[in-house]
Amino acid sequence: GRIVAVDYQIQRAKGPEPFEWVTEQNVVSYTYDEAGRLISATNAVGEREVYRYDEQHVILERGLAGGASFFWAWERAGKAARCVRHWASFSQMDTRYAWDDNGRVTLHNADGSQEVYVHDQRARLVQRIDPDGATHFKSYDDKGRLTVEQDPLGAVTAYQYDEAGRLVALFPGDDEPTTYEHDNGFVRVVRRGEAVWKYERNDQGDVTRRTDPDGHITDYSYNRYGQLVGVWYPDHSCHRLVWNERGQLLEEQLPNGGIKRYRYDELGRQVAREDEHGALTGYQWDSVGRLIRVVLPGGAEREYSYNPYGKITAERDERGHVTRYEYADGLHLISRRINADGTQVKYRYDNVRLLLTEIENEVGETYTLDYHPNGLIQQETGFDGQRTAYAYDLNGNLQEKTEHGDDGSQLVTRYERDHAGRLVRKTLPDGSTVDYAYDRQGNLLSVDDGHWALAYEYDRQNRL
Fold this sequence. Notes:
Elements: E1 5-14, E2 17-32, E3 38-43, E4 48-53, E5 59-63, E6 69-75, E7 82-88, E8 94-99, E9 104-108, E10 114-119, E11 125-129, E12 135-140, E13 146-150, E14 156-161, E15 167-172, E16 178-183, E17 186-192, E18 195-201, E19 207-211, E20 217-222, E21 228-232, E22 238-243, E23 249-253, E24 259-264, E25 270-274, E26 280-285, E27 291-295, E28 301-306, E29 312-316, E30 322-327, E31 334-338, E32 344-348, E33 358-360, E34 366-371, E35 377-381, E36 387-392, E37 398-404, E38 410-417, E39 423-427, E40 433-438, E41 444-448, E42 453-455
Pfam families: RHS_repeat, TEN_YD-shell
Domain Teneurin-like YD-shell: 160-327
Protein name: RHS repeat protein
């Protein structure tokens, strides 16, 4: 009763006989051990993942097709099992979990930073403490619906629902709330301030008419399969779409009169695209749907090859130049780019979050990046040796930028923000300031540097 393979099949005619299903290719195959546990999955080009379990059937190892492996250690058994360590075949990842019996778990990362997650008795996240101490809160009603979120600086977002559990109002702190009206389970009216959007739908829930806050109407029509076949815009122009029996888009008739056309192979992959000017582009794919060749309208070609993560390992451009990419430690992250002229660029990721930490360019110059424990950039040193440091508030918004000179000087730019994280004042290194103001929709209203003030106005749809 276990699935051992998934095949892609199509219906083919066999002479005068009825259509029959024919396997076009194997998509994935699975193998199991004697206990019925999945131990491997292999795709159409032979790339294979493997899995290993303990005697309680809890996963211990996952080996990716690209070479990286992930490991787990557990305490307790059965439904009470919980992870106490999660690490990998590469050195950056090694996290330990310390649990209490009140829904609190503390993560100890390889760099010494900690994260805390607290869940209620119904396994809902109610508190998260980031490595920098930023604390997030969530509250729920008795039906499990999120009702309140509080960010680390105290700003509150509230959610309101009707008896059916549908969202009817969103209150983003001091900003303008958004309300929703429903009909037959679908949103019918959206209001924010003076702006009102209205929607009409068919029995399947597809939008057939949309009226914007200025009263402009856009109509939509569908075929019997629910596919969009026509859009009529407020200026009376029309966009039409033509589909085949397999649900593939064959043609677009654009509002300006142009026509785009598309063709597909037996596996449903697009193999040709003709734009509205008649230019034809061709595409070729491998067995797992990765693009391996593009034939441009003029006949020039580009070719690509990949690793098991679907990352490009080589690309040949239309002039025949080949650029190659290498990936270290069995990861999906590029470690070296070898240019067509033989020069190379190297990359390092010495960070527990696998963030980029160093770039070495073609002439041996380095660009380095250091991070705060929460993953935000703490300092960057450019190829020219110029060093810039960054500090953030507890919501992760930039608060201060310090540019260090070769002579030991410092140029500091400071940023002040409102409850929503919007920039309200920027203080430049010379002490001058730039002030910013917003409306309750979050639109920028003015910028004033003390010399030339800029003002902005918006329509009811928040368009400048």
